[in-house]
Specification:
mainly beta; Immunoglobulin-like; six-stranded mixed beta sheet; five-stranded antiparallel beta sheet; 3 helices; about 40% strand; globular
Length: about 300
């Protein structure tokens, strides 16, 4: 999806420096992943403390003023935003047209950031959250059907940053709540599946997280409607109405604990079920995902 109209700004929230070079082309190219956006910058998330947030916006069109909204929500593989209220609204950012070829194609050199905003997180907030950001403008309108249909990595106006970290003891079942959902304007079938991150995603996680050495997890994993229940199912198919949200749990148990200064990752992806003419492994079928960073016990 690469809209190339001749006039006005063409804003996007950049996922990585690679995204700048590709001028916000969507769907994002691997190894970029929908739940890990370098353009959403933040301090560490912890219930009962403040979090500082700013969002970078790039533009491959004419000069314009963008408006940024940010939501803090339960981790979601399919984002239905209808009825949700942003925690940060109406942050302005002025972004010029693309620079000449002498300017490095990086977020820092070719995008502009909103001011930092501080949000107080309640002490009873969930330990696992996602930041969702949207850029909008009267001169770069989001189509009406897309305004409540957040598809990070698919629609250039939207982006997602995952905030899920789980210190985990071995031989204990841990439960991470998340929402599957249908952001598409019609009834759809979706597959929700625990999918190991590929090598490119692992490299991005190592660079971003600064949590030590990445290791493969010796783990039993299940998806289901109930917490702390190991059913052996690591994939589900759901039939969802337009804008429907479906709560689920990622349940897991480590067979052995992680060593200090190491981490592992559990990734859940949601795919639209392919039509007869589509290939099942087409990356464009992925509409969202989450990752849980598993850490040694405290």
């Amino acid at each position: 999806m690469f809209d190339d109209k001749p006039e006005g700004p063409r804003f996007f929230i950049p996922y990585a420096d690679q995204d700048i070079a590709l001028k916000g082309r969507r769907p994002i190219a691997q190894p970029m992943i929908s739940y890990l956006c370098d353009g959403i910058e933040h301090s560490d998330y912890q219930p009962g403390t403040d979090i500082d947030i700013r969002v970078w916006v790039a533009n491959f069109g004419e000069f314009g003023r963008g408006i940024v909204d940010v939501w803090l929500i339960r981790p979601s593989t399919g984002l239905s935003m209808a009825g949700r209220t942003p925690i940060i609204a109406n942050l302005p950012v002025n972004v010029g047209p693309p620079a000449d070829d002498t300017v490095p194609e990086t977020i820092r050199h070719r995008a502009e950031a909103t001011d930092w905003t501080t949000i107080s997180i309640p002490s009873d907030a969930d330990n696992h959250q996602c930041l969702i950001a949207r850029v909008r403008s009267r001169l770069d309108e989001i189509p009406p059907l897309d305004r409540d249909q957040a598809q990070p990595g698919v629609n250039r106006h939207w982006a997602q940053e995952n905030l899920s970290y789980q210190p985990a003891q071995a031989k204990v079942i841990h439960a991470i709540g998340f929402d599957a959902g249908n952001p598409i304007v019609e009834y759809q079938d979706f597959e929700i599946k625990v999918s190991p991150p590929d090598e490119g995603v692992i490299k991005r996680l190592i660079q971003r997280l600064d949590r030590g050495t990445y290791v493969d997890l010796d783990v039993e994993v299940s998806l289901g409607e109930h917490p702390e229940e190991l059913t052996g199912k690591n994939a589900l198919v759901l039939s969802l109405e337009e804008q429907q949200i479906y709560p689920l749990f990622l349940n897991f148990m480590l067979h052995r604990e992680l060593e200090p200064n190491t981490f592992g990752v559990l990734q859940v992806l949601q795919r639209r079920m392919p039509t007869e003419k589509e290939k099942p492994d087409d990356p464009a079928l992925i509409i969202g995902g989450i990752a849980v960073v598993v850490l040694p016990p405290k």
